[in-house]
Amino acid sequence: MKPWLGEEEAAAAAEAVTSGWVAQGPRVRAFEQEFAARVGAVEAVAVSNCTTGLHLALHLLGVGAGDEVVVPSFSFIATANAARYVAATPVFADVDPVTGNLTAETIAAVLTDRTRAVIVVHQAGVPADTRPIYDLLRARGIAVVEDAACAIGSTLYGAPVGSDVDLAVFSFHPRKLVTTGEGGMLVTRHPAWAARARRLREHGMSASAADRHATGSVAPEQYLEPGFNFRMTDVQAAIGRVQLTKLDAMVARRRELAARYREQLAGLPQLQLVADPAWGTTNYQSCWVLLPVDSPVGRDELLARFTEAGVSPRRGIMASHLEPAYADLPAVALPVTERLTADSLVLPLYHQMTEAEQDRVVAVLHAVFGR
């Protein structure tokens, strides 16, 4: 992945610096409003990164000690860590072998009377089929948080991922389409939740520094509850606002490149390339490919072959339940997750990629898997 950054972002960041207002301020608020409009959310709350956004979402729901939070193991470890941050226990569920996402069936298999929330990841930008998941969980009073870290620009049931949801969180890490260096955005349909989230991200402060400055208030602020320091800076927001204007072009180019990968690899039917599910479209944040069970080379050997050819792919999505950080939890059987994480890799894909660069990637795959 290479972020698509240029002179416009540099100028916007410089303007924020020279304005004298570099902490959370008016550009953050403008970015929130523009982001909410882009994804169809009622409210958007900027935070320091997606991980703190997930932490904040579970805190808003009152999840805590003694509660269980169902998460996919097939995800970056931050998803599971968010449950630990609120003293809850993460419970790992398996995923669909095609999309890499939780399903109503895999969630139902691990629910207990202690389940308080489920974090549904739209993995690598592929939207999860959330309607049956919400149907399952609402009847049981279990909350859903959508981890949309990778899914800006993806669609679900004809609308943007993040549209009119209880809680979803996006990432602006440089591996994502829209980047602010670091940063995240929590979106919600509940204005009261958004108002509380804005207080909590700034130490529980009754009125932010930017609001006090804008109104000329000299009244001392109050700290209504213990909060956090989860703020985004105006410099980051300035970059994000420019990036957001490029989103449609980013998605279109990535989908064009992914389609070309599919065309060029059509002669290798044993390779399973990520694709749109029936209920939505992916932004191809990651273009991952699954190797066959009888692959002539293992995933790690294939990565070495790519490196020799001057190409830099990455291993597939991790399995958090296999990491030492979660060795204290009871062992679980997640056969699909373990197959996907062991036998998949992420192909290079970025806005500025040329056909010649893409051909180098394809050539390695044909050399290994071709007849």
TrEMBL record:
Modified positions (N6-(pyridoxal phosphate)lysine) in chain numbering: 176
GO annotation terms (biological process): polysaccharide biosynthetic process
Residues forming the catalytic site: 176 (proton acceptor)
The keyword Ribonucleoprotein appears for this protein: no
Recorded superkingdom: Bacteria
Cofactor: pyridoxal 5'-phosphate
PANTHER family: DTDP-4-AMINO-4,6-DIDEOXYGALACTOSE TRANSAMINASE (PTHR30244:SF34), TRANSAMINASE (PTHR30244)
Name of the protein: DegT/DnrJ/EryC1/StrS family aminotransferase
